[in-house]
Amino acid sequence: AQSVTQLGSHVSVSEGALVLLRCNYSSSVPPYLFWYVQYPNQGLQLLLKYTTGATLVKGINGFEAEFKKSETSFHLTKPSAHMSDAAEYFCAVSKAAGNKLTFGGGTRVLVKP
Amino acid sequence: NAGVMQNPRHLVRRRGQEARLRCSPMKGHSHVYWYRQLPEEGLKFMVYLQKENIIDESGMPKERFSAEFPKEGPSILRIQQVVRGDSAAYFCASWDRGHGDTEAFFGQGTRLTVV
After folding, report:
1. Residue B1 pLDDT > 70, yes or no?
2. Are A16 and A79 in contact (CB under 8 A)?
3. Burial tier of A79 (Cβ tally within 10 Å: 0-12, 13-18, 19+)
């Protein structure tokens, strides 16, 4: 069975500071990895994904993530936080294209002015 | 091309009533997933359907919950005799193999409140 662990249910960063959200997964097969963002009372928006190929993946809104197979990690970063980045972020894994997703518990990001 | 449409966006039911949640997939998509997000938690897979077939219902509670995706019309998630613990956001996502996408697309969700 697959599982996803997100370290830190809440993260507080200052505007302009680095955002780092951690995600570790377990999977019996090479995984597809995703990061989603959810704003209050909204649906999920895909930030970025890793399927195959280059392990550093760039997404929308200046976010990027690096797939590290040896560490079974897919941490999300953004060099400079913006107030609009305040939201909840979910890491997810699937076994193949279109398969069901297994989500982490989420990390709520607070951005301080 | 409209996205995944869910309705209603908000639903209030009294304990013991039935809740029906609808999901219209993206045009051309024949696969639908339902997920539940309990307060302060991540999303949990419930059921995976293709047109007229339930493919994987391993995440569905054993009682009171059912899902369908008929040949025509939206997918329906039905919760009978709702209880307070059913209060959650329910999301559907749609996908189709022929479009080359690697992930399903999510709707805005239905937020169910049981009073």
Report:
1. no
2. no
3. exposed
- Alpha carbon of residue A13 to chain centroid: 16
For the cut 80, the answer to whether the pLDDT of residue B2 exceeds it is: no
Separation of alpha carbons A77 and B64, rounded Å: 41
Inter-chain touch B102–A42, beta carbons under 8 Å: no
For B67-108, write each residue's pLDDT tens digit.
999 999 999 999 999 999 999 999 999 998 776 777 889 999
d(CA A95, CA A101): 8
Q: How far apart are CA A4 and CA B29, in angstroms?
A: 27
- Are A100 and B111 a contacting pair at CB < 8 A? no
Stated as kind and residue range, the H or E segment containing A19 is strand A19-26
Residue A17 is predicted with a pLDDT of 97
d(CA A8, CA A66): 18
CA distance A39 to A77: 18
Contact A88, A109 (CB under 8 A): yes
A-chain residues near B106 (CB < 8 A): 36, 43-45
Give the rounded percent of residues in chain B with a pLDDT score beyond 70: 97
What are the tokens at A86?
């305040």
DSSP reduced 3-state for A23: strand
